[in-house]
Prior knowledge:
Layout: E1 6-11, E2 31-32, E3 35-36, H1 37-47, E4 52-57, H2 61-65, E5 70-71, E6 74-80, H3 86-95, E7 109-114, E8 117-119, H4 123-133, E9 137-143, E10 152-155, E11 161-165, E12 177-186, H5 200-210, E13 215-219, E14 224-226, H6 230-241, E15 246-247, E16 252-253, E17 258-260, E18 263-264, E19 269-270, E20 275-277, E21 280-281, E22 286-287, E23 292-293, E24 298-299, E25 304-305, E26 310-311, E27 316-317, E28 322-323, E29 328-329, E30 340-341, E31 344-348, H7 352-367, E32 372-377, H8 385-394, E33 398-404, H9 407-417, E34 421-427, E35 431-437, H10 446-458, E36 470-472, H11 476-492, E37 502-505, H12 509-520, E38 524-525, E39 531-535, E40 542-546, E41 549-552, H13 553-566, E42 571-575, H14 580-588, E43 592-596, H15 605-612, H16 620-632, H17 637-641, E44 649-655, H18 659-666, E45 671-672, E46 677-681, E47 684-691, E48 695-702, H19 705-721, E49 729-731
Helix pairs in contact: 7-8, 7-10, 11-12, 11-16, 12-16, 13-16
Amino acid sequence: MLKDVSAVILAGGMGKRLRPLTEKMPKPMLPIKNTPVIGHIFALLATHGVRNAAVMCGYMAEQLEEMGGSYGDLKISYVVEDTPLGTAGCVREALVEKKKRSKLDVGEDFLVMCGDAYCDVDLSAAYEFHRSCGGLLTMVVTQVENPQEYGLVQLDEEGRVLSFTEKPDWSAVHGDIANTGIYFCRREILDYIPEGVSDFGRDLFVCLLAEGQDLYGYVTEDFWCDIGDAESYYSCNMRASGGDSIIGAGSKIADSSGLGSSVIGKNVKIGEDCVVLDSIVWNNCIIGRGAVIEPRCIIGDGCVISENVTIKSGSVMECDRVTVSRTTHSVGQQQYNDIFHERTIIIPADEAEEVCYRLGLAIGNVLKGNFTVGLMYKSGIPRGKEDLIAGLVRSGGTLTDEGEGFEAIAAFAARERGYNLMIFASDMGHGVELQVFDLTGLYPGVRFERDVQSALRTQKILARPSEVAVQTAEDVGALYVQRLVEEICRSSGAGIPLAGMEVGLVDTLPTRMLARALSECGAMLAPMGEIQVALTPCGTEMMMQCGELRYEDWQLLAPILRDEIEKDVSQIALPYRAPKAMSEFVESLGGKVAHYTLSPSGNEAEARAFAAKQPWLHDGCFALGRVLALIACREGGMAELMQGIPAFGYVVETVDVAECDKMAVIKSGGDFAGEGVSHEYDGGRVRMIANSRRGVCLVAEAGDMADATELIRMAKERIESMGISRRKKETQRER
């Protein structure tokens, strides 16, 4: 029992992802089995003997306060936050003595619970575990089906937390053990929470683990479900009801009407010949004769559904809505979760105009204020371009049309122009694909995705502007070539760094840009030149042929890494999925490596800032220019340049597996490696990275290409031995 443990309940959020349900009600007041979520939490605390609880309120606090000051022996106080301080910041606000705003007397330990989850966790058992471990904090964790939606925890055999990843991209998923937002904390943890805004998952856990503090995870199989969005709220109600229909007090249902596993609130009137299938109807609703509510609907308080109206499956109706038409209705939230795929936004061709306008509005809602956006496109005018521009401008943005280009120069423009966001659009026939870059020239990450998705689902659709002003900029290509020349000269030190060098280029838009820079640096462009170079159309992947020797991507980047260290650049940024040989090489030269993920979910600002200063790392033109300059400095040419570079083979292949099987592959063993899990083999390793779009990405590294290819074969056999069939494969290179 927890009679000496006080509880803090976090209930201040606005519940944006649950709109329109939360437009007139705070998220903790949403009913589960006709009782507010926070009411279930009060009951759970009282059952386990907690005597005192403070509810941290913000949005619509007055509704929470109406729950009263007690529940059995549980005394409840309410603290209204003046300013949102984050999950950890508001706990400090409530409990630190000099600013203490709650009436709690905190003993040796206290309990923190999120007010937006329904559960029946054995808190007493979790507390006993916390006391026996002696750690600074114990989080209650549980297995989940969709690991992307939660903070993921990696534990050792004793339950000690080894790593914590807050709501990761699929590429950073390493398991399915998730944080429930229930924490038993020693009082001393308050000393680690800074004043101001601070979050348990994004800030505090990272800090504590970095300092070597002992955090533990108590694994529970007890009932727990989150209500973060309409889909999870619906699922939570259905799970909690056990498949039975629940009918609230005072509700009247005509004998000729049928319910199928539905939760009906209080004082609801359902007329004759109605059908309500597997749905949730809140209090005080009126459903007219012959109306049909299809499965998975949520009908808010006080709604009136007229006779013979059909509410289509998955609809969400805000409170007090009245439907008067006899036509079929599909209202409320629209799901846009599936437009983000592996750092790419994909919009179907037949929805391009509507979705692009909504997307422009959503991006504006995320960036806020007087933001700037650059737009570049692959070739021609992509579908939805004008609609995207209209949405961005309507939401307050200043848009600059950078014209045609390729991905690498779009990332360059993001850094050089200082845009809040750079968008590169391609019309792919089946639809429109958008790549986005932030000020570092890298992908903004998971937080950006989630914020945009939330805005798409919940934003009010503003009328299209009658006029759209679009700025034009000076040719970014000229600036790009100028920076290329500067980079080549920096590596060479000579006045004409490539004088007399014969270079042949395979014609693509990126190599045309490179050709301009090489010519300015004195190189002779010759189709049969002694050195042949090629770039993919996106400009990020490269190849160099010197006689019979062929070099690609990371093999070409290795001498640049050495050159950086020799120029006293002590810190190098590398993506986690870079060959381990590269990190070891940098460290052997006395440098330090800062790793970053391609789609970050946490704070990687320092590593990403370093990456922004290394354009050659993700731009093939800059990398090839640097390598050619380094060759020109050596009498022995490429052979001399590659001396001392470690030999390695690096192969990337994507195995397409079913969505339900990806987690089994990731959990099949190996060590978490920043992105995916790494399996060690004799002579090499294979990293397995979950892929939201195609399955699982296999990244093999060995002493040479043949051995790396063999490791890929062994990894695929490992997957097949688990009973997971491969439907197709796609080989690709990534940096």
